[in-house]
Amino acid sequence: QVQLVESGGGLVQAGGSLRLSCAASGSIFSINAMGWYRQAPGKQRELVAVISGGSTVYADSVKGRFTISRDNAKNTVWLQMNSLEAEDTAVYYCNADVTLRSRATLASWGQGTQVTVSS
After folding, report:
1. CA atoms within 13 A on the CB side of 36
2. How confident is the model at residue 71, as a pLDDT?
3. Cα–Cα distance, 80 to 17 (Å, whole number)
4. Which of 2, 61, 89, 90 is most buried, most CB within 10 Å of its CB?
5. How far apart are CA 34 and CA 78, in angstroms?
6. How far apart are CA 111 and CA 100, in angstroms?
7. Which long-range contacts (CB under 8 A, 24 or more apart) does 68-74 make?
8. CA 33 from chain center: how many Å?
């Protein structure tokens, strides 16, 4: 019913930048919060950043380096990642809290995009 398609991951040297994109499509009435999570090998999935309305929340580990933004008309969210560190290496997942046209609600996830930071 809802598809989240991510792009923009890849391999970058420490100190470099990447920009992740996530576009939502499907039977969407509205989207509340959109966010990014990540999961490193052997670790639990963790929140990176979330945006809802005009508010944003960031993990302490990325504050000042990452910026989340959103285009509501395009159902798209971006994550600009600067000053990347080896510890940022993980699979990054997009998440959206969606209200469907049926008015049912759904937490939808993307397939994940790999970010690898070489030190």
Report:
1. 36
2. 96
3. 7
4. 90
5. 10
6. 20
7. 68/35, 68/36, 70/34, 72/31, 74/23
8. 11
Q: Grade residue 54 by pLDDT with cuts at 50, 70 and 90.
A: confident
SS3 readout for 35-97: EEEEECCCCCCEEEEEEECCEEEECCCCCCCEEEEEEHHHCEEEEEECCCCHHHCEEEEEEEE
Nearest to 49 by CA among 19, 5, 10, 11: 19
Q: Report how far apart, in Å, the C-alpha atoms of 79 and of each of 44, 84, 111 are.
A: 20, 12, 16
pLDDT digits (tens, 9 = 90+) for 4-51: 999 999 999 999 999 999 999 999 999 999 999 999 999 999 999 999
